[in-house]
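Could you help me review a protein record that somebody else here produced? Do not assume that whoever made the record got everything right. The record follows directly below this note.
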Amino acid sequence: MTAGVLLVGASGLAREVVAADITGVVGILDDDAALHGNEIDGIPVLGPVASAAGRAEQLLVCIGPSESRRAVVRRIRDAGVPEDRFATFVARSARIGSTSGIAPGSIVLDGVVVTAHATIGRHVVVMPSCVITHDDVIGDFATLAAGVALGGAVRIGEATYLGMNSSVRPGAAIGDGATVGMGAVVLGDVPDGEIWAGIPARRLGGNR
């Protein structure tokens, strides 16, 4: 990564990545013109997201909401930016098992534990102190808020959101675009696009 890294999105997530001691960051891209020329935690905001296509640095998309993150990644890809331009960031205090894998574009923050044979997809955000155990599969663009705990062989769908301190029973599947509320205890499968919360978690509605 000799050209350095650009963070995409002048967000709270970007500030968390900076605080986790990422190296090589040369700037931030954001569409808010009022931020251009300013600094966020000492990192200059260089211009809009569209300027990524004309630059050489690697890109780390620091946008919290799953759907928004997916939309920005699609914009960047549609502008001709290849997949190998997307960086991956794993905080030094995270523990990643030797048989687990993390795809490009993902962010894994402080205190996360990933054990055996887990798979984390592209552009996933794993916030601090999450626990991802054996054989879990986390789909692209999923977001795990702080303190999420997954039992073994859990399946998390694309662009799914799991709220802070929620937990999922071993073997359960959370569908694409689903939302699990803060502190929820999921004991069974959650269908695509549904919102579940509570102990045990129950359906509250749909989010699409």
DSSP finds two helices and 24 strands in the chain. The first strand starts at residue 5 and ends at 8.
